[in-house]
Design goal:
Blueprint lengths: L2 H18 L11 E2 L2 E2 L17 H5 L1 H7 L7 E5 L7 H8 L4 E6 L2 H11 L7 E5 L12 E7 L8 H11 E13 L12 E2 L1 H9 L3 E7 L5 E8 L14
Parallel strand pairs: 3-4, 3-6, 4-5, 6-7, 7-8
Antiparallel strand pairs: 1-2, 7-10, 9-10
Length: 241
């Protein structure tokens, strides 16, 4: 083969690779998903808002933690953990034989979590630097994925839902916590709220079924999902009044 012919074949091969190669992120970041506008991720400089004094009154996190029904020895993921508002309470719930995977896409958030953990002894917390389309969770090993006011910011919802589904144990659950869009009295921007109907639509379309709900928080919905092939019984949604 002549040098010119060899170069031609080589260039064609490189072109074929470029045309068929899968990019790092299969799709770019979305601005809308299934009729819903996607909010921007909260910057780490806003982290003090996550530990504001009024949060206990506004969200009653102790009620949420009880409703999660976490068992000692479980593996739990705090997805979008921020500076760890819920992480340490989850670590107490699972005990020394359990594990909390604290996932965030901003390394600065994980640094803040580590700073808050310095004076505490929680060897069962594992900080995990996720990506916008991959939380880097172990397959089939997670008993509960907790998402508190973070899912509505996912720029790659389908990829994240697929990864979460893969991570769940056979009876694993996702606890989705979002500010109620149905309640105009909740003083949060509409972009940062989700309705029950929208939550169900997005999760059902991505291989999940509703297995429970908790409606006793002041401002937020709590919906529990499992894989659609889970042995957990399906739950009939009670619409928020």
């Amino acid at each position: 083969m002549s040098p010119s012919a060899f170069i031609c074949v080589h260039l064609r091969f490189l072109l074929l690779l470029l045309l068929t190669a899968t990019p790092l992120h299969a799709e770019g970041p979305r601005t809308k998903y299934m009729g819903r506008a996607i909010a921007r991720t909260m910057h780490y400089l806003g982290a003090p808002w996550l530990v504001r004094d009024s949060r206990e009154r506004e969200e009653e996190p102790a009620k949420l933690l009880k409703a999660l029904e976490i068992q000692t020895g479980q593996t739990v993921c705090d997805l979008g953990c921020g500076n760890g508002f819920y992480t340490f309470s989850l670590a107490e719930k699972v005990g020394p034989r359990g594990k909390v995977l604290a996932v965030d896409i901003q390394p600065e958030m994980l640094d803040l979590l580590r700073d808050r953990a310095e004076a505490r002894n929680f060897p069962n917390i594992e900080p995990v630097l996720g990506e916008v389309d991959d939380p880097h969770l172990p397959a089939g090993a997670v008993d509960l994925v907790l998402l508190v006011d973070v899912y509505h910011e996912f720029s790659h919802p389908e990829e994240m839902l697929a990864a979460m589904r893969t991570s769940l144990s056979p009876t694993g659950r996702v606890a989705l916590v979002e500010f109620r869009a149905e309640d105009p009295a909740v003083p949060i921007k509409r972009l940062h709220k989700m309705s029950q109907r929208q939550c169900l639509k997005e999760y059902a379309a991505n291989g999940f079924k509703l297995v429970g709900q908790f409606d006793e928080l002041p401002w937020q919905h709590v919906l529990f999902f499992a894989r659609d092939d889970s042995t957990l019984p399906a739950h009939e949604l009670k619409p928020w009044k």
